Amino acid sequence: MTPSDKNFLLIKSLEQRDERALKQLYDVYWKKMYLYALKVLNHQQLCEDILQDIFISIWEKAPTAKIKNIESYLFRALKYKIANALRDEKYTQINNEHLNFLPSEDYVKNAIEYKDLETQVHKTIQTLPEKCKNVFYLSRIEEYTNHEIAEELNISVRTVETHISKALKHLRVHISYLLIIAFFFNA
Q1: Cα(170)–Cα(123) distance, rounded to whole angstroms?
Q2: Do 85 and 101 fall into the same domain?
Q3: Between residues 176 and 184, which one has the greater pLDDT?
Q4: Whole domain around residue 69: which residue ranges?
Q5: DSSP label of 92
Q6: In the chain, % of residues over pLDDT 90
Q7: Are the C-beta atoms of 74 and 54 separated by less than 8 Å?
Q8: Are 81 and 19 in contact (CB under 8 A)?
Q9: How does DSSP assign 106-169, residue by residue?
Q10: Would you list the DSSP string of 31-62?
Q11: Mind listing the pLDDT tens digit for each residue in 52-92?
Q12: Is the pLDDT of residue 93 over 90?
């Protein structure tokens, strides 16, 4: 039996509300999806909640969803949920790990898509006001402390914090938008 035959039978079983099909789906995809979500969000409980929502949703929608490829369907749902979680994040400051939430080349089927997204992030950084861009560069790329940046640029630590906060807010808005677009067009 080919993988596409197995995919077809699994979808048909889900449509007919076969609980064994849901369990099989869960057993095959849960860990892979969880690890992907954890790499992006770095929050175990949130990832578990997202996966629970996805599996409940697929169970409820399977009879009418007209799913063609179960893996694509699951990962598209996961990407959508992750994008929403990132958008809803309410942190006052984001550290380097949160800026590294861009998908790695291991998770992107086409390296060109990854490079395009990376280029868009760099372009977004370039749209920051000059002083803000310099502070952000020293903080996130050169890994200077806020005190070191203040001394280097002859500004107050509070001004450094303000510039970093502005830059992160700008990036959060623009990158979330780019990710949502990328997820919808590449899923």
Answers
A1: 12
A2: no
A3: 176
A4: 1-90
A5: S
A6: 18
A7: yes
A8: no
A9: TT-S-HHHHHHHHHHHHHHHHTS-HHHHHHHIIIIIS---HHHHHHHHT--HHHHHHHHHHHHH
A10: HHHHHHHHHHH--HHHHHHHHHHHHHHHHHHH
A11: 999 998 888 888 888 888 888 888 889 988 888 877 665 43
A12: no
Q: Is 20 in the same domain as 61?
A: yes
| Tokens, residue 138 | 């020293």
**Distance in angstroms (rounded) separating the CA atoms of residues 36 and 75:** 9
Asked whether residue 97 carries a pLDDT value surpassing 70, the answer given is no
Is the whole model's pTM more than 0.85, yes or no? no
Which pair of structure tokens corresponds to residue 109?
Answer: 């089927």
Q: Select from 93, 121, 112, 127 the least CA-distant residue to 179.
A: 121
Residues 26 and 177: their CA atoms lie apart, in Å, by: 30
Q: Is 64 exposed, middle or buried (0-12, 13-18, 19+ CB in 10 A)?
A: exposed
Tokens linked to 139: 């903080």
Closest CA to 133 of 118, 123, 120: 123
Among 90, 113, 142, the domain-final residue is 90
